[in-house]
Specification:
The longest helix is centred in the middle third of the chain and has 32 residues, at 123-154. 67% of the residues lie in helices and 0% in strands. It has eight helices and no strands. The chain is globular and about 55 Å long. 16% of the residues are buried. The chain is mainly alpha-helical.
């Protein structure tokens, strides 16, 4: 089974949920609650708060169900929602999840990239944190637009398609390779080149070292 596509079992489960079957929702919870809870609790270290985040994840899934794309696995979809809810929770507490700008993967899952910063901070620090997030987002948008524009000028459409499939649709390297009829090594090279270009572009914007401090770490 392709990891980027919904399995037959999950497709049937989603269909049952959409049809309003009473047992379907409980089946979903039974199947995924434990894994989601383990993921969140390993970050928060607090059971009650972790259970709240997981509950919000299932609610978020239910609200987004009309837009669910069956080409993406149910598990990866739920974990994406869960990561978003976890981020919201941490920001409310004044803690920030750090997603490093690197192409290192080494087979790790997306959950392995999360690191938490310190205990809750005062309100003034929260304001600075919000400003920093906006600066980070603006810097990344500019860097991505710059690289995509450069590829367009050179006619590197395969690279653009590759990045869309990897980072927008969340496909695995091997599925992107099959879709674009290129090798997995080419996909890995394009990804590595793209993330390195983003790092360089962001650094060239001469932002304060407090923004993306990982770019300046020894």
């Amino acid at each position: 089974m392709s990891p980027t596509r919904v399995s037959e079992t999950d497709a049937l489960l989603i269909g049952r949920i959409r049809e309003g079957e009473e047992d379907a929702w409980q089946d979903l919870i039974d199947r995924y609650e434990g894994r989601l809870l383990a993921f969140v609790e390993s970050r928060l270290r607090r059971r009650a708060h972790s259970e709240d985040v997981v509950q919000e994840t299932f609610i978020g899934f239910l609200n987004s169900l009309p837009n669910y794309d069956g080409r993406r696995s149910l598990e990866s979809y739920l974990f994406a929602i869960c990561a978003y809810k976890l981020t919201d929770h941490l920001r409310r507490e004044g803690r920030r999840p750090t997603l490093p700008l690197s192409s290192a993967g080494g087979g790790k899952s997306s959950s392995d990239t999360w690191e938490l910063e310190g205990p809750a901070r005062p309100a003034s620090s929260l304001v600075r944190s919000g400003e920093r997030r906006r600066m980070e987002e603006d810097a990344l948008v500019e860097a991505i637009q710059e690289q995509i524009a450069r590829w367009r000028e050179r006619g590197d459409w395969v690279k653009i398609q590759c990045m869309e499939l990897l980072f927008v649709r969340g496909w695995a390297n091997k599925d992107v390779a099959a879709k674009l009829d290129i090798s997995e090594q080419h996909v890995a090279n394009y990804k590595h080149d793209f993330t390195n270009k983003l790092r360089g572009s962001v650094k060239n914007q001469q932002l304060s070292e407090e923004v993306f401090p990982e770019l300046y770490s020894p």
